[in-house]
């Protein structure tokens, strides 16, 4: 049903699309020794208590990624899977510090990811890259990362902020984001996932974030909810992620329903689909069922993603028309 609508994905970490099978394939190709005996053993470790416990496995698996070809294959595999789900456009996070800290040059990462996007263009899917800073690493490192990518700013869509949230408020990165915006980059930030509503306010006021990734803890602050509604600030919600990282008890209890009821601009996304049990279509289907969403609510999510994207107005209008027409046929 939703598969026929044109979907837009705005919150997916390319490293989080690294399926265990590919981790083993790339490690074998690169002569990298992994600490797990098999794909099954790695899969069994995918039970998490919180965001940090997930991140340690996520960063560990990145050891398999070394060459531009690896990053290209990773991107291509994700885009193929996303296109099969009906995704026509994706704005995709990558974490350069995870790779540069292992000696992989940032240009290798960007070259590979752009090559993967190019290879997937025949599938009818477009994509842009959002360079994320790891907020639990020093601010100086983020600044150096930005400056190393600055010559390629035209090839990037924007910057984001991810990794362990609590104790690392957005305010720390105000200068980095100001410099990024000066390069013409769009700004987004993870906030209000495990961190408090105040981090969402900081991301808006101090980073100039145009979208908030996750953001569901904003519901704890009625004044912030009113602001998000009035300013139509996009919130990129990732239901499977929130349940698997134990921020939310179950899909049936997911605050997405309340966010819709509050008239917030929300979209459904996959975050790290290789770790959390499904891609964007799986997330959409599951919340539709578990939250008993009506057709109008599903349509709001699909249209919300289009509106929240950084696509030009013309393409947004075209996708919006297509989505509405597909909804009528469904
Ligand atoms: N939150 C913060 N950082 C991340 C995530 C997430 O859900 N996934 C990958 N890095
Ligand atoms: Zn995320």
CATH arch. level architecture = Alpha-Beta Barrel
Distance between the termini: 6 Å
Number of domains: 1
The CATH topology annotation reads as TIM Barrel
Give the low-confidence spans.
Answer: none
- SSE pattern: EHHHHEHHEHEHEHEHEHHEHHHH
Instruction: Tell me, rounded to a whole number, the average pLDDT.
Output: 97
Cofactors and ligands present? hypoxanthine, zinc ion
CATH class: Alpha Beta
- Tell me the strand percentage band: 5-15%
What is the CATH superfamily classification? Metal-dependent hydrolases
Shape, principal axes of CA atoms = globular
Total beta strands: 8
Protein architecture, described:
This protein is of the alpha/beta class and 330 residues long. The chain has one domain (7-309): TIM Barrel. It is 49% helix and 14% strand. It contains 16 helices and eight strands. The protein has helices at 20-30, 39-44, 51-61, 68-84, 96-100, 106-119, 139-149, 174-182, 197-207, 222-230, 239-244, 256-261, 273-276, 280-290, 295-308, 313-329; strands at 7-13, 87-94, 126-134, 158-162, 186-191, 211-214, 234-237, 265-268. Helix 9 links the parallel strand 5 (186-191) and strand 6. Helix 4 packs parallel to helix 6 (106-119), helix 7 packs parallel to helix 8 and helix 15 runs antiparallel to helix 16. The chain is globular and about 50 Å long. It starts with 6 loop residues before the first strand and ends with a helix.
